[in-house]
From TrEMBL:
Keywords: DNA-binding, Transcription, Transcription regulation. InterPro entries: GntR_C, TF_FadR/GntR_C, Tscrpt_reg_HTH_GntR, WH-like_DNA-bd_sf, WH_DNA-bd_sf. SMART domains: FCD (SM00895), HTH_GNTR (SM00345). Residues 1-29 are annotated as: Disordered. Pfam families: FCD, GntR. Residues 32-101 form the HTH gntR-type domain. Residues 1-10 have a biased composition (Low complexity). This is FadR/GntR family transcriptional regulator. It comes from the Bacteria. CDD domains: WHTH_GntR. PANTHER family: GNTR FAMILY REGULATORY PROTEIN, TRANSCRIPTIONAL REGULATOR, GNTR FAMILY.
Length: 281
């Protein structure tokens, strides 16, 4: 077997020892809890760099022996780790660690969300709620910390203004996404940046879907975004929070209208309406 021998050893740290079912008596616990403990143990090892990318994991039977659990429990735990994008399994071979950083983990999280949205368009509405939770706090924090937003926010606004003058709806939608992501990136929180960067494609899909519902002109839409930016610069956190809340609430309504409209089409065409409409743009 190739790869660091550390992959074989459960007790790498006190925290890991507490989390992992490395004692024989642990087999009396519920299988689901054992599975979760094993997943948590290997996640900690991978993110800490003790199991770097390329490390070959032990065989499932050997891991089961080390943790004193059934091979079925180990198989389920490995499936979870693979779903999270941390390991890769091949038939007849031991699993290999393929990611060891937070960015990679969040990338697999975004893929999971994307799959949910593809299977059921209603998840797009839930994504709008995630945006509401995050962006309301973001604009309030930016306003209360001196009203300073990153240069990317202004560039996005300038792009929106130019697209509005040119009547370029697709270009406007792209800059619209850039504006919201740039606001989030203006907050000094790298984990939040990684999360929103990974959700960028999904946010773009949502905005393009909502843009297909007849509503205000591009000029009015630009002024709405510019107004949010001015409130941030003025340091009026409550007003900025209220303005972006109204903006996202309206967009969520447009997404629901688009979903409902596609659901009325024949042959079940509405099942993944937002995905299809966004790809047509």
């Amino acid at each position: 077997m190739s790869g660091p021998a550390a992959a074989l050893l459960p007790p790498a740290s006190p925290r890991a020892r507490r989390a992992a079912p490395s004692q024989p008596g642990a087999v009396t616990a519920e299988r689901g809890k054992l599975q979760d403990s094993i997943v948590e143990y290997y996640e900690a090892e991978i993110f800490a760099g003790r199991l770097p990318v390329g490390t070959r994991m032990p065989a499932e039977a050997e891991i089961a022996r080390l943790f004193a659990v059934s091979t079925r429990t180990i198989r389920d735990a490995m499936q979870v780790l693979e779903t999270k994008g941390l390991i890769q399994r091949r038939h007849g071979e031991c699993a290999v660690v393929v990611r060891d950083d937070v960015g990679g983990f969040l990338d697999s999280l975004a893929l999971t969300v994307k799959q949910l949205c593809s299977s059921d368009a209603r998840y797009f509405v839930e994504l709008m709620d995630v945006r509401r939770i995050v962006e309301l706090d973001v604009v309030e924090r930016l306003a209360s910390s001196g009203g300073v937003a990153g240069a990317e926010v202004m560039r996005a606004l300038q792009g929106m203004e130019a697209a509005a003058r040119a009547g370029d709806a697709a270009g406007f939608a792209r800059c619209d996404v850039d504006f919201h992501v740039a606001l989030v990136r203006s907050v000094p929180n790298k984990i939040l940046h990684i999360l929103y960067d990974n959700l960028y494609g999904l946010i773009s899909d949502v905005i393009q879907v909502s843009a297909r519902v007849p509503r205000k002109s591009l000029d009015d839409a630009y002024e709405e975004h510019a107004g949010i930016y001015r409130l941030i610069q003025a340091g009026d956190g409550q007003a900025a929070r209220s303005a972006i809340a109204q903006h996202i609430e309206a967009s969520a309504g447009y997404v629901q209208i688009a979903i409902a409209a596609r659901a009325q089409e024949p042959s079940g065409a509405g099942k993944d309406a937002p995905r299809a409409r966004a790809e047509e743009a």
